[in-house]
Design brief:
single chain, mainly alpha, 292 residues, Growth Hormone, Chain: A
Length: 292
């Protein structure tokens, strides 16, 4: 967990500073492919009778190979640092030093982007974790079928990020985030439609996944633009913390609601989180533009 958090913060900030938005989208598209492949690797180990430990061994081998490749490619990373930053940056001597958590929170707009990240990851994890339960308990879908259909949510995210990479060549990060939010609203509306053969359930979660696709990478890529390259590493680090808290806390809260009230409240829960995220995005834009 500590390693994953460190890699997330450092790699995302590096790509945000030195590469274009399409590269960030495709980077996170690769996350979707890897996240989808992991269960199949474990399934292969179990189905062949090698046991669960063999699955972890296969993943460990891949991690070791990646580590060797990363260390071998360090000179290329250093060469890239010497190139001109791709993002418009604002450099201030006041924040050129290492920032404490309190100093990061005092940066204008920082709280807005942290809440945005919290809400986005809360939506992604809540939808992903509870999609199958929603299909079973609210849509009366067979639990085996529901598990397969729920995985299409992540297919939507992965495919969406591949497509988003091309769209970012035409639209900026701010527009892509708004577009993603609109598509998510459309997906939630589709969930509520009385379509036959559970079409609304499948299409709804796939569309929500497509809407999720550009938001995470575009928020990160826009961070140096809003806060400056000298502060972006600190901001991205707290963004990752906000992401993990949202991913851990909010699905559990909905689980409590679903168990004690009704699983049918999932669309309303997602709408509330999406509304907060959209409001924080508008506040972030206004705050940062007022400082220019």
């Amino acid at each position: 967990g500590l390693g994953a958090g460190g890699v997330d913060a450092a790699l995302n900030n590096y790509v945000a500073l030195h590469y274009e938005s399409r590269h960030m989208s495709w980077l996170h598209c690769m996350w979707g492919i890897g996240a989808s492949a992991g269960p199949y690797v474990m399934g292969f180990a179990l189905s062949c009778g090698f046991g669960w430990s063999a699955g972890y061994q296969y993943i460990a081998i891949v991690q070791v190979i990646l580590t060797v490749i990363l260390f071998a490619s360090l000179p290329l990373w250093n060469n890239r640092k010497s190139h001109k930053l791709l993002n418009p940056i604002k450099i201030s001597k006041e924040y050129s030093k290492t920032l404490s958590f309190e100093e990061v929170l005092r940066i204008p707009g920082a709280k807005n982007i942290f809440i945005m990240f919290f809400c986005y990851c809360a939506i992604e994890q809540t939808a992903g974790l509870w999609a199958s339960s929603y299909m079973v308990l609210h849509g009366s879908v067979n639990h085996v079928v529901a598990a397969g259909w729920a995985s299409l949510f992540y297919v939507g995210i992965t495919a969406g990020r591949f497509i988003s990479g091309f769209l970012t060549m035409r639209f900026n990060d701010e527009t892509m985030i708004r577009l993603g939010q609109l598509v998510m609203i459309l997906g939630i509306i589709v969930l509520l439609l009385p379509l036959p053969n559970h079409i609304a359930l499948v299409a709804g979660f796939v569309i929500i996944g497509l809407g999720c696709a550009p938001i995470y990478p575009c928020i990160i890529h826009s961070t140096p633009h809003y806060f400056g390259a000298d502060k972006s590493q600190a901001i991205v680090g707290v963004q990752m913390a906000s992401a993990y808290i949202g991913s851990m806390l909010m699905p559990a809260i909905f689980g409590f609601i679903g168990q004690n009230v009704s699983m049918s409240l999932l669309p309303a829960y997602l709408i509330i989180l999406l509304s907060i995220m959209a409001f924080m995005h508008m506040k972030l834009i206004r705050t940062c533009k007022s400082l220019v």
